[in-house]
Specification:
The protein is α/β, with parallel strands linked by helices. The chain contains nine helices and ten strands. The strands form two sheets. It has a six-stranded mixed beta sheet, sandwiched between helices. A four-stranded antiparallel beta sheet has the order 2-1-4-5, with helices on one face. Helix 3 runs parallel beside helix 5, helix 4 packs across helix 5 and helix 5 packs parallel to helix 6.
Length: 246
């Protein structure tokens, strides 16, 4: 398997509490991989470690063949982009300016792109506006968007960085069913050809989106497999899915 992301024996403690207990995980290049598990399992903590917000106490993190263990976010930003559970858009900037900042920041972090003309940066931002369906709101302040539109902008910001690996933390949280369905269609369309690792509690979303699913329970990955195999896995049913898997 050509791995876009590899986690080897990841351990994280907060005081005497062991949140992650030796996590091993591989995400193949180009796949959509979901990470599921009960609250408190350590999913967002794992995202914090991958994206450089915190350091693991033990283990290795490798992205696109490069060891990024303990590297700060600005050092790993050319390899991965992350959205958070709550929207992180710049409310005082327009929708277009949010996307342009992401595209400009990505170009500045890569030597090959550092001297891209302003026109090319604008083209990237406009292309992402079209992709996320917000072209008509380009000049609107991001703070004035609906919640679902802000989450779409979050996705656009992550994609505008052109990072090969995208981490999405509960992208449909707080949405009604119709909004979540549209968000999933958007994610599916815009991440085509990218590697996606997504945390999501909506099981309909997970089983409809992911190529493979990993289940994190009490700081350990207890299973990684196809959606059908995960749904039928008795250990997963007992630990997390319960009636959802039946």
């Amino acid at each position: 398997m050509n791995a876009a992301l590899e986690l080897h024996g990841i351990v994280k403690r907060f005081g005497v509490t062991r949140v992650l207990r030796g996590v091993d995980l591989q995400v193949a290049a180009g796949e959509r991989h979901a990470l599921i598990g009960p609250n408190g399992a350590g999913k967002s903590t794992l995202f914090d470690l991958i994206s450089g917000r915190t350091r693991p106490d033990d283990g290795r993190i490798v992205a696109s063949g490069i060891d990024i263990t303990g590297k700060p976010p600005q050092r790993v930003s050319r390899l991965l982009a992350r959205s958070f559970q709550t929207t992180s858009v710049f409310g005082g900037l327009s929708v277009f300016e949010n996307l342009r900042c992401a595209a400009l920041g990505a170009a500045s972090s890569r030597l090959v792109d550092r001297w891209l003309p302003s026109r090319r940066i604008d083209e990237r931002a406009h292309a992402m506006l079209d992709a996320i369906g917000l072209a008509a709101r380009a000049d609107e302040l991001a703070a004035r968007l609906t919640y679902a539109e802000q989450r779409a902008l979050d996705l656009g910001i992550a994609l505008a960085t052109d990072a090969p690996l995208i981490l999405l933390d509960e992208p449909t949280a707080g949405m009604n069913r119709a909004e979540a369905t549209r968000a999933l269609e958007l994610i599916r369309a815009t991440t085509e050809g990218r590697t996606l690792l997504v945390i999501e509690h909506d099981m309909d979303a997970v089983f409809g989106l992911a190529d493979r699913i990993s289940v994190l329970v009490q700081g350990r990955v207890i299973a990684t497999d196809t959606p059908a195999a995960i749904r039928a896995n008795r250990a997963v049913q007992d630990a997390y899915l319960g009636g959802v898997a039946s």
